[in-house]
Design a protein that fits this description.
12 strands, about 15% strand, Aspartate Aminotransferase, domain 2, binds pyridoxal-5'-phosphate, 7-stranded mixed sheet, Aspartate Aminotransferase, domain 1, single chain, 14 helices
Length: about 400
């Protein structure tokens, strides 16, 4: 839809675009973006309705197809990501499912990294195979494993980097090149990195997905998702799939995510700075057996993260000596950091993946992923890093 977005100089930085870009001003010239909380739209005449449905005029017809508040969010995220096109969805999982299901058919192959968010794992290994898709999982950090899996033609490759919860870093450029040689499009779930720290399209990825529920909202209020890619992919594959299957984003939730984009960069930079300090504290603590943070030189993916990320994210994962009992004792003793399976929030959130987010992942996959009962995943928020460190220190004692 050709929309009359607020004009900005073409050369403004992402920081400025995040504040202004994509705004569709109404005749009232409001400063904050309006919430168009409407399911449908009306026509001045029967002729206008006919023209709209024939495609002779471009206008909003129904919010399952498009809505002005949702469009504002899509346009702003599109510019931040540097993508040709963006479509919002009602949740991150709706985004992942749409990005895959809109373009893969029975008899075709999906090759995915094993280290996936748990619902993504279910889509890849249970839901799509019911429709005749053949899924193969590989160790995403092992380029030889991708090479082997992609020695046969594939339709799609799918990965997450940094991954949940082990923060594995996967080589986007290498996997994109191998995918293309095998005839596959690479879909990247970029939730952990955020558009501030990593732009997969610049490394050859074809499609990027987000759960806006995480850092983009950033204050834990709403579910949402987005899919970004080329105009051709969106027009021909994604748009028809979304219009007719209907995982539309509510205009109200789109407005929350839109306003979240204005402060995204400031928030994730501040949280990542604290995450680095918390990770250093954890690594030096005698009760911590291992600390994973891609910004630390002792992290296996550090050099690669430096090449493809401009910051190292807001999550750190660590192992406590003493296994599950020690983890539960520490969790129950925390006073500031909250126990939650969510992430990317202003409030620091911690979880024990083995008994929560990854409880249903098959034991063999967990073993291959390195997930065990001694591990905790911490999403660092916007509190003072000193307070977070003091909270952890007290809880470990
Ligand atoms: C949360 C999350 C999702 C799913 O997003 P929802 O908004 O909860 O549906 C997908 N991938 C990753 C990496 C996530 O963290």
């Amino acid at each position: 839809m050709a929309l009359d977005y607020r004009n900005l100089p073409a050369d403004v930085s992402a920081r400025t675009a995040a504040i202004h870009a994509g705004q569709l001003p109404s005749p009232y010239m409001e400063n904050a973006e309006a919430i168009y909380m409407t399911s449908g739209f009306t026509y001045a005449s029967a002729e206008e309705a006919e023209a709209a449905f024939k495609g002779d005029i471009e206008r909003y017809v129904y919010s399952r197809y498009a809505n002005p508040t949702v469009s504002m969010f899509e346009e702003r995220l599109r510019l931040l990501e540097g993508a040709e096109a963006c479509m919002a969805t009602g949740s991150g999982m709706a985004a992942v499912f749409a990005a895959l299901a809109c373009q893969i058919s029975a008899g075709e192959r999906l090759v995915a990294s094993r280290a996936l968010f748990s619902s993504c794992h279910v889509i890849a290994t249970q839901i799509l195979p019911r429709f005749g898709v053949e899924t193969e999982l590989v160790d995403g950090t092992d380029l030889a494993a991708w090479e082997r899996a992609l020695s046969r033609p594939a339709k799609l490759t799918f990965l997450e980097t940094p991954s949940n919860p082990m923060l594995d870093i996967i080589d986007l450029k290498a996997v994109a090149e191998m995918s293309h040689r095998a005839g596959a499009m690479l879909v990247v779930d970029n939730v952990f990195a955020t558009p501030v720290f990593q732009r997969p399209l610049e490394f050859g990825a074809d499609v990027v997905t987000y759960s806006t529920t995480k850092h983009i909202d950033g204050q834990g209020r709403s579910l949402g998702g987005a899919v970004l890619g080329s105009q051709e992919f969106v027009t021909e594959k994604l748009l028809p799939f979304l219009r007719h299957t209907g995982p539309a984003l509510s205009p109200f939730n789109a407005w929350i995510a839109l306003k979240g984009l204005e402060t995204l960069e400031l928030r994730v930079r501040a949280a990542a700075e604290s995450a680095a300090r918390v990770a250093d504290f954890l690594a030096a603590h005698p009760k911590v057996a291992q600390t994973i943070y891609p910004g630390r030189t002792d992290c296996a993916g550090h050099d690669l993260a430096k090449r493809q990320m401009s910051g190292f994210g807001t999550l750190t994962t660590f192992r406590l000596k003493g296994g599950k009992a020690a983890c539960f004792k520490a969790l129950n003793a925390l006073q500031t950091i909250r126990i939650s399976n969510n992430l990317g929030d202003a409030k620091s959130l911690i979880c024990h993946p083995d008994t929560t987010t990854h409880a249903k992942v098959p034991a063999e996959d967990k073993r291959l992923l390195g997930i065990d009962d001694s591990m905790l995943r911490l999403s660092v928020g916007l509190e003072s890093a000193d307070d977070l460190i003091a909270d952890l220190d007290r809880a470990f004692a």
